[in-house]
Amino acid sequence: MKQILFISVLFISGLFAQNSNDDCMACHSDESLTTTRNGKTVSLFVESGRYISSIHGSMECVDCHSGFNGEDLPHKAGTNIHKVDCSSCHDVAAFKGSIHGTKNVECYSCHTKHSILPASNMTNGRVELCMSCHSTGSVKQFTQGGHYKAYKTGNRVNCVTCHGNNSHEIKKVAFNKFTETQLCNKCHATHKTQFSVELHSRANQAEFPKCTSCHGSHLAAVNRFSRNSQECMTCHMNPTIFHPKDNEKLVNFIKTYQTSVHAGIQANGVEAASCADCHGNHTAEGLEASKNRVKRENINETCGRCHQDALKEFNASSHGLAAKKYKDIAPVCTDCHGEHQISKVKSPEFAKMKIKEMCMNCHVKNEKVLKLTKATSSDIMHYEKSAHWKALKAGNEKAAVCSDCHTGHAMLPASDPKSSIHKSNIAATCGVSGCHVKEKNAYNVSIHWKSLKEGKIDSPACADCHGNHQIESPNRFGNQGVKNQFIAKLCSDCHASVELASRYNFSQIQADSYYESYHGLAVKGGSKLAANCASCHNYHDIRPSTDPLSSIHRSNLSKTCGKCHPNASLDNKFAKVHVTNTQEESIMLYLVKTGYIFLIFATIGIMFIHNVLDWIRKRQHKKKHKHVIAEMKKDKKYYVRMTKNERIQHFFLLTSFIGLVISGFALVYPDALWVRAIRSVLGDSAFEIRGLTHRILGVIMIIVSLYHTYYLLFTKNGKQMLRDFLPAWHDWDDVKVNFKYLTFRSDETPAFRRFSYMEKAEYWALVWGTVVMSATGLLLMFNNFFLANAPKIWFDIATLIHYYEAWLATLAIIVWHFYFVIFSPEVYPINKAFITGLMSEELMEAEHPLELERLKALEAEESGAVEGTEKSDSTNKEIEDKKDEGSSPKE
């Protein structure tokens, strides 16, 4: 049927003998019209509407399709009827020289066959048209690049912009470093100026990078992530490209970037910082160039392009300010963080151990830095003795290093109020999360912090007590005794300061009274249990006594003191802690102190004067009667002065008294040379041994005193001793006679009985002193009981009396007793009666003439009663008894 139609059309057309387009379309408007060419079925359909609207719409079909007779049917009988020669109308010389012309690409490949549009309606080298043939993966990337985006927004950049002057002059892609740069510079004029002076541009070697080396060809991008740093590494890690002698070292240095924090891929899929971010893109300069972005003078600003906050802090810091004046020694970013090998701040490569070494490289080893900062290397090196450093070495990564206190970028001198180590900020610095938070919170409610906020700059902050770099562990002291001493001295350095007390109008009595108290004395002596300042006031949350929350507020004193003294009751008006003996502070203590001082000076003064006069007169008497004394010594007659029982009592009294004096005054005067000697022998337990010894000896003295009381009241010899020690009227007569004798107003010497007024006075003073010392000593020994059941003022009075009575007793023994036993001319070098129990006749004559007369009379009596050669057993026994009573002589 189709053949009949085709023949009919040809027949009719032949009748009219026309070759118009209508004639052609009569057949070619049939969509099913095809032919076979080179073994392939080819459509012969032409859409007349599109052809008429094309640039060739006014032309006849035969203007292009020549070489056949239109009347000949079918047309394929002609030669190359399907070939069209555009050169008959168009100058195609340039096209034939292009890559398309040499590859026999037909015009219709780009312009189509029948729907050819005018050049004004067709983008020259339209991208989609080119990609209909050029469909490789590399070319397809063009649609993802910056050029394609510009093309889609109306910018005429397209394939021919780079590949030829127009669509017909497409050249083979054979760009080199120089031609490519010239091509790109046609559009990128700004970058042309930059790149023309850039390091890469100045290199003459063809293998050095051109535009597409970094930006790519079809996938050209205009942001900083256009090419990642691995593209730079392609060249910069190739040793053959570098010509320095040490190129391997340089390559390895560049390679460290690959493991740096900058090379890490972020959530958006790109590097944290590429090479171009630091070195620049078209402005990369040589290391010695003044505008090189990574040159030492410029590196801070380069890093600050990303790290703006850090740069702002750094520029205002001591380091930043020093960098403007001392460029040769002031640090820049890379001195601390490194260059290519920059690691995360919390990475092992940037561990705290390395931070300490990094800081010390300048602040310890650089003499210029030390001179500029006015510090010494030893000051900084104290850190290596600190608790922080020891903890860090032990593996505690929370332990502080330089940057934890001084910050990483905003380090400022301690004198700057904005500094992290300024006195007003140091608590916040030390109390940063993960460190001393509890201590900071406690300090922030203390009187010290409140005073500091009020502008009292001398009020202590952390470093004033703990030190700066040399901060040590609170457990460093070895024992609690040394720690107690340290704390007490630390607090008293301020609280005992006359200058600070005057400046801030506070009293110094707290520090003074503490060291006068048992607590202070015990601490100075090395006690491990006695309270130091912090035991009562706490360490950090130190509050004034007026604060109801204070540990030393009146309502809390019993609880505070009760930590050591269970059930202590200190809620009454006498419960002053830091009490002094002044009239203003306590009239009762003032009267006791004043009375005792007067008593001591008066008593010891009278004793001293008495004994000096006595020594002078006895020396005179001894010289005057030396012959008589010599004769009496020849007789070698002795009389019992002390029985064995009395000597034993005296021994325990003597040893306990001397021991009590030594152990007691060792508490009051712990820094005395003789006390230090004892402490050096006894070591750390010296104070505990001293206290135990003092209490044991005190108990021994009390027991001896109680036994002596029994001896006086219930034994024959004791009753006689008590009668002889009782004061009598003749003692007053002896005082008057002896006073005249001592003052050279008479040569008459007093005739003393068994005990002179000097011995009676000493004996009853001993009784008094023993009672007082025992009573006050027991109160102090059982302090917990008395603090719980009696006003504290009793305890204070007892302490004061115990102290002054000890001085009175000690001085009395030295000035009075030792004189009559050791230094008196009549007994020198010592009276041995307390050892042997005997006294010589000449000494009895000198010291106790009336007693000597009594004994001689008794001796005469006994001699008459025993005349004869035999003596009854009863008589012998009686004589022996009387000898024991001191009633007979021994030869």
Give the arrangement of secondary structure elements.
Blueprint: H1 2-16, H2 21-28, E1 34-37, E2 40-43, H3 48-52, H4 61-64, H5 93-96, H6 99-102, H7 108-111, H8 127-131, H9 137-140, H10 146-152, H11 159-163, H12 177-185, H13 189-196, H14 199-202, H15 211-215, H16 229-236, H17 247-255, H18 275-279, H19 299-304, H20 308-316, H21 318-325, H22 333-337, H23 352-363, H24 367-373, H25 377-381, H26 387-393, H27 402-406, H28 426-430, H29 437-443, H30 447-453, H31 462-466, H32 480-495, H33 498-504, H34 509-516, H35 518-524, H36 533-537, H37 557-562, H38 587-624, H39 626-635, E3 638-640, H40 644-668, H41 673-682, H42 686-714, H43 716-725, H44 729-742, H45 757-781, H46 783-789, H47 792-823, H48 833-836, E4 838-840, H49 841-847, H50 849-865, H51 873-884, E5 889-890
Antiparallel strand pairs: 1-2, 3-4, 3-5
Helix pairs in contact: 12-13, 20-21, 34-35, 38-47, 40-42, 42-43, 42-45, 45-46, 45-47, 49-50
